[in-house]
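Narrative of activities, Objective 1.

The group set out to show that a structural description can be obtained from nothing but a protein's sequence at a throughput compatible with the screening campaign. Below is one input-output pair from the validation batch, recorded exactly as produced.
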Amino acid sequence: QLFFDKRPNSTFDLPTVNETALVPPKKAEGDESPINNPENLAREAAYVNRLFSQQVLKQGKREKFEQANPWQDELNDSDIVSVAYRYRQWSLNNDVTLVSRCEFHAMDEGNEKVCIRAVNEYDPKATGVDWRTQLSTQRGTVLATELKNN
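Output recorded for this entry:
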């Protein structure tokens, strides 16, 4: 059996930033908190995704599920983001079963679950794609580069 254990203050559940790029972001020697440090970029991406998912939702309508938010007691209502969890199970082969907790942020008109994410730009020199000049004319190139790098 294989278990993934999340420790306090770990970056296990933070989004990756250009993890599979030709030149992934690296922690600079001697600089304790550079802006393009992989951990700082991951924390920023998590924060941006949290805020973006709340901005694009229709206000006032919330789905009620069988079980309440597990952090309801620890947080007040203004701190709780619109997110629900669903456990999924896959059989990878005869001996391996994968169980995962998946999150989603909304339900569409057809009651399909929707996960909302933002794509973040951090340094055009490092990524090779300058969104400011290419996003309006070459959306596909920008998206393909981000998918390849992440």
